[in-house]
Amino acid sequence: MKTNSQIYSILENFSFALDVPILVFNDGEKLINYFPEHFIRPPEILRGPLYRQLALTRNLPPQQLYTYSDIYHHNFFIYPIKDNEGAATYISIGPLLMNEIKQDDVRKLLISNEFTLDYEENLLNYFHQLRVVTPNQFQAIKQISELTLSAVDPNIRQTPQDEESRAYDEFKQRYEQIKFFHQPKEFEEHFLSLFKQGDEACFDMLKNIDNYPVPSIGNGNPVRSRKNLMISMITLLVRTSVEAGVEQEEAYSLGDFYINLLESIDTLDRLLILEKNIYHSYFNRVKKQDRSTVYTPLVARTIQYVSKHLSESISLDDIAGEFKVHPNYLSSLFKKETGDTLSQYINRQRIKEAKELLINTDYSLLEISTLMGFNTQSYFARIFKRHEGVPPNEYRRHYHNPTV
User: Fold this and answer.
1) Could you give all domains of the chain from N- to C-terminal order, each with its CATH number?
2) pTM exceeding the 0.85 threshold for the entire prediction
3) Could you tell me if 15 and 21 are in contact, meaning their C-beta atoms sit under 8 angstroms apart?
4) Cα 206 to Cα 278: distance, rounded to the nearest angstrom
5) What SS3 class is residue 390?
6) Are 10 and 152 a contacting pair, CB within 8 Å?
7) Following DSSP, what letter does each residue of 13-46 receive, concatenated?
8) Where would you tag: which of 46, 105, 209, 382 has the fewest CB atoms within 10 A of its CB?
9) Does the pLDDT of residue 329 top 90, yes or no?
10) Using alpha carbons only, what angle is made at residue 91 by residues 6 and 42, rounded to the nearest 5 degrees?
């Protein structure tokens, strides 16, 4: 059996060799160690998704590596282990970034999540320290992590080296209550099975949700409590949809979009309406799987790339360089299979997302144009009118949903 110092020595060397941060949490989800020593921990406003993932990992089989990403550009692995007494320790490999986070990205993040711009400098310093990796490098780190962590003894001392705040300890206790709205496990499994099959009988089950108590996990605030429950729900729907064949990038991107959207809503009635829309949105994607167009791997990866980078500046040369093909070849193949030029497809997807924001949020046109990656508000308005026949402000007047 390895001692704590030996275990931490392995983790420290692993962190140094691969230039990745490693965080160790105890069974109370308090940080007990991290590497490297100079690592700047995630700012408080970014910690929520990580703590949610720790809570969700609690019921998964230990000594296995689980991959997660969140709406704040983090990509990381969590490796839960349990000692002889059943106490859990969580080893987090990461966060890592798939793309460099620049000042504009930080501002978009703050705007979309309704955070004050006072956090901008702290977030820039935090993201600047994180390693940017390619998808292939991310998978390589995963493989090396699995080999390395298999040598870690589960009996790690549980005494916190650096206590987290009382607020997060309370957050953990509240979040442990979430088990799919407190329905019995059989209810959850049956619902997800029907959902995965594209069987509309799953919606009949949702009508019975009110028969089960809803835990309060929002510090006494029913709106915050419902938002936390919906985030848990979205996590389940993302995983179930991916298992049913929905493209992983599409499922996660849609989840990020809805989490951002629900955070902009401030009444319970509007949240409940959005909740119903989220169920149907994922369900419709699951049902479409058998009729989905099959693209060649290059075009499929291009579509995934566009979906992931929709709010950024995207060019044909950037994508061709990412996949190491000639731009003319990519352009010709993409047009042949989709019927659109790459720029037409990008703008079509941006306008599609912009319409959702115009209908379901009160974001200004400037905020929407920024979130959707348009250089200026006037350019956004021009492209929007070209696609929809009316300017975005007029579209909002006709279709804005006052109840969402």
Assistant:
1) 4-171 (3.30.450.240), 180-291 (no CATH), 297-399 (1.10.10.60)
2) no
3) yes
4) 13
5) coil
6) yes
7) HHHHHHT--EEEE-TT--EEEEESTT--PPPGGG
8) 382
9) yes
10) 120
